[in-house]
Each structure stands twice: as C-alpha cells, then as structure tokens.
Amino acid sequence: MSKIPVAIFGRVSLDSMDFQRQINDLQKVADRLNYEVVSIITEKISGAKNNDERLGIQQLLSQAKLGKFRKLLCTEISRLGRSNTQTLTLIDELHRLGVSIYFQDLNSETLNENGEVSFQTEILTNLLSLFAKNERQTLISRIKSGMLQAKKNNIHCGRPKGFENTDDFLSKYPKVIDGLKRGLSVRECVKLYDVSLGTVAKIRKMAIV
C-alpha cells in the first residue's frame, strides 16, 4: 500500500528565529503515521501578513493545485497565520483542493476519511469566524476614529494627487493578469514577468483573480 503524500509547513516571524524544531516534530508525526513527506515549505514572515504577500503560502497553494500532496502538517493553526480572516480563507482554499490539514497540538485533521469537514474543524472555523468578524469591526472602528481625528486636525484623507485608478494601473500588466488567471502563483509571476512582489500582489487583489 502506497504512503499518503504530505507536505510540512513551518513558519516563524523573525529572521533570527528558527523553524527547525517545527520541521523535526512534524517529520516524527509523518513517520509515526506512515506518511511520505514530499514537500517541506517554510517561511520567515509575520503571520499577520495577507496570504498573497507570503511566498510560503503561495508556494503551498501552487503545489496543492498541482495535487502534489493530500495532507498538510502544521504544529498549530497560528503557523498558517495570525489573521483570522486570512487563515479561514487559506483553510477553505486547501479544502477545495482536497487537502486536509493536520494540527499537531490538536492531534486532529480538518477533513475526515470521507473528505468532509470534521466536527472539530467546524467548531474551530466558527470560532475563527467570530474572531474575524470582531477583528474587522475593530479595524473599521479604528479607521473611522482616525479619519475623524484627521479631519479635526485639517488633514486630508481622500485620494492623493496623482492617484492612479484601477483600470489605468491594471492596463499596464495584461501578462501578469493572464498569468494569475491561468493559475500561476504570485511568486511565479514575479519571476516570469520581472515584476515586484508588491505589484503582483496588488494586481491580484485589484483584478480579483
């Protein structure tokens, strides 16, 4: 019987930190469960960043789309991200690709043997959704408060002079848009079209691809 192909994902927030312990622990999990580790993906970046700004996440999704692995091993959910909204989006996308996520600290997977969302996952995602809603409301409240304060201080909060609208900006990068629509990752587009990471991430968000 062939082993189930899995990927290991490790993340730390700072360059000075080391993710090797995460990798070693997850390798032991794979050995114990008789999984075949076909990919080890790591990154050193804040988990609060958007998914499209994280090369590790883009690499993870790119390989998942190719069907390289069936399960993803993480030490804990915070390794996937610290933004509840972004983490929920990532989990949903991996599920759509048929990838189950194993969290070592919970000793459980997000999908059951039938590929359905497990009861524990439903509870977890519902909690994350509530946190995400609160997170968004808090952010909106802070933005409104900041704009009111700026207005009191006679600080302009509208679009700056020389602002470039969406259509004008996107019209400069048709190849990048086409590449994203064909399923290329942000990192792949950066290399293929010689465009900065920030620009590709901005195009992906503005073009909704």
Describe the SSE topology.
Blueprint: E1 4-12, H1 20-32, E2 35-44, H2 55-65, E3 71-74, H3 84-96, E4 100-103, E5 108-109, H4 119-152, H5 166-170, H6 174-181, H7 186-193, H8 197-207
Parallel strand pairs: 1-2, 1-3, 3-4
Antiparallel strand pairs: 4-5
Q: Specify the oligomeric state.
A: single chain
Radius of gyration in whole Å, from Cα?
Answer: 20 Å
Largest sheet: 5 strands, mixed
β-strand amount? 5-15%
Helix/strand structural class: alpha/beta
Our measurement of the CA-to-CA distance between the termini, rounded to an integer number of angstroms, reads: 39 Å
SSE string: EHEHEHEEHHHHH
Count of distinct strands: 5
Low-confidence stretches: none
Molecular shape = globular
How much is the average pLDDT?
Answer: 83
Characterise this structure:
- It is a single chain.
- 49% of the residues lie in helices and 14% in strands.
- It is of the alpha/beta class and 209 residues long.
- It has a five-stranded mixed β-sheet, sandwiched between helices.
- Helix 3 (84-96) packs across helix 4 (119-152).
- The protein is globular and about 65 Å long.
Main traits of this protein?
8 helices, globular, five-stranded mixed sheet, 209 residues, alpha/beta, 5 strands, 14% strand, 49% helix
Can I get a quick summary?
The chain has 209 residues and is of the alpha/beta class. It is built from 8 helices and 5 strands; from the N terminus they run βαβαβαββααααα.
